[in-house]
Amino acid sequence: MESEGSTTGLSTAALVAIACNTFVAILLLLLCLIIYQACRVPSSPERLPVLAPSEAETQQINEHKYLLTS
Q1: What letters, b where the CB count within 10 A reaches 16 and e where it falls short, cover 19-52?
Q2: Which of 9, 18, 32, 63 is the most exposed place for a label (fewest CB within 10 A)?
Q3: Is Membrane one of the keywords (predicted)?
Q4: Each residue of 25-55: pLDDT tens digit?
């Protein structure tokens, strides 16, 4: 199964296994980096969430409610 010209002494199957394991390790590191970025606490807490209404919209809603109740 080993080739005659191999200078490292490792079989082809061993080299393929090393390459696959290295690829999987890189993917795991990338996944950990993505999870770390996603779980970080926001550095600017004054920023509103995307789905939160702006101050102008909130004021319009409150004025509309006030007009309906009076």
Answers
A1: eeeeeeeeeeeeeeeeeeeeeeeeeeeeeeeeee
A2: 9
A3: yes
A4: 999 999 999 999 888 866 666 665 666 656 7
N residues, the chain: 70
**Is 16 in contact with 7 (CB distance < 8 Å)?**
no
Q: Please answer whether residues 61 and 53 qualify as being in contact, where contact means their C-beta atoms are separated by less than 8 angstroms.
A: yes
CB-based contacts of 1, cutoff 8 Å, min separation 6? 11, 12, 13
pTM of the predicted model over 0.70: no
Token reading at 45: 């807490």
Query: How far is the C-alpha of 1 from the C-alpha of 32, rounded, in Å?
Result: 37
